[in-house]
Amino acid sequence: MNKRAEQVETTRQRIVDAAVALHGSVGPAKTTIAGVAEQAGVTRLTVYRHFADDAALFSACSSHWLSQQQLPDPAAWSELTDPLTRLHAGLADLYRFYRDGEPMLRRIYGDWAALPEGHRSDLAQRNNFFRDRLLEPFPEPDSGRLRAVVAHSVSFWTWRSLCHDNGLSNDDAVQAMTGLAAMTAGLQQPC
What we know:
By secondary structure, this protein is mostly helical.
């Protein structure tokens, strides 16, 4: 019985690994069950035996990929009470994560419309959570302009534009976005 369970788990993991590889190379929109099956060396029916639908496979793929990453740590940011210090630390943490995961994140965000609705919602909520944690210590965190600037700063696409497309280092991008938030909030940016 244990050997059978191990074989089932090994097959399931091969399928998840295949989905991760395809999501990272061709993106979720071009990843098919047939492609996952071929990459994993199983039949399409075997994929469906392990995963009832694309959303279940996407969830397993996402969980597996995320388990291999050093995720941002908003709890650590929340310990910082100075608004610009927290913003700087949070953006540095996020931008490190974005740089480390850029190939996969570019495919995921680039195929936004092809993602299962629940995952789009989770990603949007995660960005809102990051924005809100970073806004908490500001004197007027509900200012529409400041919310927009901080929301923009936590976006993967903002990081990608600043660093990947325009050659800034993560630190330079963090400084630029912190400076913009400081100016928007009417605060002095620390040197």
